[in-house]
Amino acid sequence: MHLAIDVSWTQVETTWREPGARVGRHYPDVGLFEDIARTAERGLIDLIFFGDSTGIPSTWKGSIEDAVRYGVAWPRMDMSPWIVAMSRVTKHIGFGLTYATTFMHPFYVARLLNSLDHITNGRLAFNVITSQRKADAQNYGFDELMEHGQRYDRMDEFIDVCRALWASVEPDAFEWNRETGLVANPAKVRAINHEGRFFKVKGPLSVPPSPQVVPVLIQAGGSPRGTRTAARFVDHVFGARKPIPAMAKQRAEVDAALRSEGRDPGKVGIIWSTQVMVGETEAEAKKMKERLIDRVPREAVGAWLSHNTGFDMSTLPRRFTLRELNERIVAANASPVGFVQQLSQTLGHDGEITLEEFFEQGLRTATSYATTVAGTAAQIADYLEERFEGAGSRGGFMLRHSQAEQIEMLHNIVDLLVPELQRRGRFRTAYTGRTLRENLAV
Q1: Which one of 90, 141, 161, 215 is most buried, by most CB atoms within 10 A?
Q2: pTM higher than 0.90, yes or no?
Q3: How many CA atoms lie within 13 A of 371 on its CB side?
């Protein structure tokens, strides 16, 4: 199995209060991230992953006030310069960078990712996302959220343009011939002349092809439309945490979509988001888990839920059904997946819930308490093995709550869990690939 470490929310959303959290070393100190990279590479981890959002959450009560007050999804930085620093103190581990195709321009992103793939010597992944976050949309000139299907239409075209740009300069175009003075062969550098619904790009890309040429492409769309889009280009799918039968169902849906695109499902893994707490003892791990929900304000929960669905949860009545909530969210062009989808699966679409119950469940979701598995290395290895086999044994896990709050917890992954997985023959004992793509091969 493959293992990635998710540092998307390092020391925000209340985790900065945890024992061991390095308050004052996170923003903008790069040393913390260098420490994380060195430690993760010592554990032979495949990838350090950076999710992103670019606006301060403002959906809750139409204000940024509670997000600012409690550190919900902010402060956040563009992690591309930090990846450069982390790559300079490592040799093998990969880096996953997130940009929203809903807002960004493909020429800029293609050029930037090419440059980062050069700097990292072929260790870059691009997490391709759409965005349903109003705070982000407003920073890019959108008054309202783009409709769900249109977001994926734009993503389709965005990736088509990026891939055309990455192919616009052939790998052997550059000659650097001192005798003739020839830098590159013009016949191997071609414009793409793209004119589509969303973008008009002449090209070609103005840089040499990078070690991977195309960075590893990751996409997390779990809806039927998201799955169809992912099947066109994805190298690995980022899957949300769910029960094993639902994992197997998503694996089957992804495989069917890949076959419809003429692609081999055996070469595309699903990297499942998985929250773990690993301790020397089970009691130690469970104690760490309990701290996740300790003294977290309701307003922080509301800001988090509203930001990640694109719908203002402060407008909810005292009692409602999940069907009514879904209808409100869809009407706002927001996203009913994630927490709301999980509630619907548990309670049914016509299941009724009170506002207090909703926020109690929301607390456990926003902090990942509800889905965090705490235990010894052997217990966590048992858990991962069962899920790996149940989901088709292709891909691996994106570990959250392993080090994002405390780098000391990353040591528990590296020094306790990884050796246990290695003893079971479930994880590598050395990096064997030259690039991230090679190391992530299914």
Answers
A1: 215
A2: no
A3: 20
pLDDT over threshold 70, residue 122: yes
| CB neighbourhood size of 345 (10 A) | 14
Cβ contact 250:222 at 8 Å? yes
Q: Give the 3-state secondary structure of the chain.
A: CEEEEECCCCCCCCHHHCCCCCCCCCCCCCHHHHHHHHHHHHCCCCEEEECCCCCCCCCHHHCCHHHHHHCCCCCCCCCHHHHHHHHHCCCCCEEEEEEECCCCCHHHHHHHHHHHHHHCCCCEEEEEECCCCHHHHHHCCCCCCCCHHHHHHHHHHHHHHHHHHHCCECCCCECCCCCCCCCECHHHECCCCEECCCCEECCCCCCCCCCCCCCEEEECCCCHHHHHHHHHHCCEEEECCCCHHHHHHHHHHHHHHHHHCCCCHHHCEEEEEEEEEECCCHHHHHHHHHHHHCCCCHHHHHHHHHHHHCCCHHHCCCEEEHHHHHHHHHHCCCCCCCHHHHHHHHHCCCCEEEHHHHHHHHHHHHCCCCCEEEECHHHHHHHHHHHHHHCCCCEEEEEECCCCCCHHHHHHHHHHHHHHHHHCCCCCCCCCCCCHHHHCCC
How many angstroms separate the CA atoms of 9 and 25, rounded?
A: 14
Between these two residues, 425 and 146, which has the higher pLDDT value? 425
With beta carbons less than 8 A apart as the criterion, state whether 53 and 300 touch: no
Q: Is 194 left (phi over 0), alpha (psi -120 to 50) or beta?
A: beta
Q: Averaged over 92-119, what is the pLDDT?
A: 97
pLDDT, residue 12, reads 46
pLDDT of residue 27: 59
pLDDT of residue 24 exceeding 60, the answer is no
Residue 75 — pLDDT band, cuts 50, 70, 90? confident
85, 91 contact by CB (below 8 A): no
- Greatest Cα pair distance in the chain: 79
Do 183 and 143 meet the contact criterion of CB atoms below 8 Å apart?
A: no
What are the boundaries of each domain within the chain? 2-294+371-439, 297-366
Q: Residue 334: its pLDDT value, please? A: 66
2-294+371-439 in CATH: which number?
3.20.20.30
Q: Report the percent of the chain where pLDDT is more than 70.
A: 93
Ramachandran sector of residue 148 (left: φ over 0; alpha: ψ -120 to 50; beta: rest)? alpha
